Amino acid sequence: MYYILVNGTHLKGKQLKKFDDTLAVFEKAGKEYKIYKTFRRGDAKKFTEEITSSGHCGTVIAMGGDGTLHDVINGFKDFENFDLGLIPFGTGNDFAEGAGIPLNHIEAAETIIYGRTRNIDFIELSSGLRSINSVGMGIDVDVLKRTYSSGEKGKGKYLKALIVSLANFKSCNFTVKYDGKEEKHFGLIAAVGNGKYFGGGIKIFPDAKIDDGLLDVIIVDFISKARIPAAFAKLMAGRVDKIKKVTFVKTKEVTFVHEAENFTIQAEGELYDNVPLEAHIVEGKLRLYLDRI
What we know:
Layout: E1 2-7, H1 13-28, E2 33-38, H2 43-52, E3 58-64, H3 66-75, E4 82-88, H4 94-99, H5 105-114, E5 116-125, E6 130-131, E7 134-138, H6 139-150, H7 156-168, E8 172-178, E9 181-193, E10 197-198, E11 202-203, E12 215-221, H8 228-236, E13 246-251, E14 253-258, E15 264-267, E16 270-273, E17 277-291
Parallel strand pairs: 1-2, 1-3, 3-4
Antiparallel strand pairs: 5-6, 5-17, 7-9, 7-15, 8-9, 8-14, 9-12, 10-11, 12-13, 14-17, 15-16
């Protein structure tokens, strides 16, 4: 059985036509499916919990963007009897792009129906919060807050917010602990990745792999305003590793200690206040449809 979770607020106009065309792929293949429409944050998590606690087996399909996928991975209860499928259908499809999942809805559906799964990793925090793509604090949170408050549509909203944030964001003090080391930083961003992209297509973790059993950690320390244009150009070109004052680490677990009393982190673009950023990698526990046969 295929359990399709789709963002119901998007089912209008061209998106509704794409949705119907996607269902036709399952019907043509003679596959049985159930549809669950989500309308608010947390709906996909609740539905996934119900589905994967049912004692049955099947495939949970996130038909949406990174936010829907985030809710689904946090609702998973039974990793032995349920697989995950992804049909990119949102504004931000960063995980899908980094994982090599077709961004075309028909091709993505065919990958699930005719393809095979691969065991992949995900990030888990000490609070129990999971992240399949990236989690971080700093300027990425500032970008998201500006994006959501703008009310704009489309991927361009992330870029506009990033430009404003680069010009106005103030670095913060934090401590990072990994592999027995403890370092002090005054930085723009501290982020942990499993996928390659964030923020609507920015390749911030160029060497990340979703099945290597490692977290990709990036720390960008203070950059003067005079150097921001050059750093921005490198960031947009996917060459964040060429920016000065950037630290890259591959590790299995990492802890960031923010010196402020109140702070916000993001996971797949969802914001969480005062959740400790203590992350470890969960290796190969999730089966995701990736390979077309």
